[in-house]
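Re: beginner question about structure tokens

> Can someone show what the tokenized structure looks like for a real chain? I only ever see the sequence side.

Sure, here's an example I had lying around. Input first:
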Amino acid sequence: MGRRKPSSDGPINIDSDSEPEPEPESDLKCSISEIYNDQLSKHRTCWMHVLAASKAQRQSLTRGETEEIKKISPCFLTFSPHRQRSTRSVKQKNVSREVSRKTQKQDSKTCSVSRRKPVPVSRACRVSPKKQKLGSEAFECYFENLWKSFSEDKKTSFTYFDCLWFSLYIKPTTTDKVLTWIKKKHIFSKKYVFVPIVCWSHWNLLILCHFGENVESKTQRPCMLLLDSLEMADPRRLEPNIRKFVVDIFREEGRPENMNLLRKIPLLIPKVPQQRNDEECGNFVLYFINLFMESAPQNFSMEGYPYFMKKNWFTYESLDCFCQELYSSAK
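And the corresponding structure tokens:
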């Protein structure tokens, strides 16, 4: 039996359940923008929004259901308590702003020097980029600029999913819509597919390798890479949702592969460089994408694994330089 269409009276109503006319590839971003592109795009599907929508529709949720929603629908906004600020705190904030302005000017001068004349990395990156956790809107902005920097020849073997598709997929009300978007990406004609994942307020990078190949092949078969810059967060906890995600993608495409074999596609988790604080995971995912695009083998196989994806894959100085250049290009 086919999967039952989600009810339209769930906590998130993206659009009607009627089958739309097929959208061209260029309209995928438009579909996403209709949901998220406003001044509170980071907040539209966080747990507070979901609970508020449920309450408005008089849907009662248990404590356990509420806690689960909080886990899979993090809120990236921070709120200050509504209280009168003291004169001292205002002065401190003004001083902080002034220091920030000076730092930005110094950062701008440093980047200008590095573009005009090559200098050692250690000198060019004395000013670190702002340490802040990336929300989905900021991540998408930086990623789009990064993707444009790659040559057309390089991009022919790669494609990517929107950074919110995976988190939307695991919500029953939007599962079918996401699978429809993915179908338009033609991933089985690509060697590599980048799937940025943000769950539990943490960014990971899933890479689907050679999904167009025979799953029973002994020389060239599909596999998955999960790159996590915070191993203590236990990346394996994503595996059940990832495997269900993959099976649904194959089923949606009408592929003939045996579902039991699909569930056995290797999920590899290489030992990659680890973040220095709890704010850098988004930056690491962007840099993983950048370096993987540059170094990915023509044909990924288990024999060469983990290839270049090791603990010493890159230096933190090169990561900081990358982030500075990426941030400045988005201004």
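Each token stands for a local structural state, so reading them left to right follows the chain. The radius of gyration is 22 Å.
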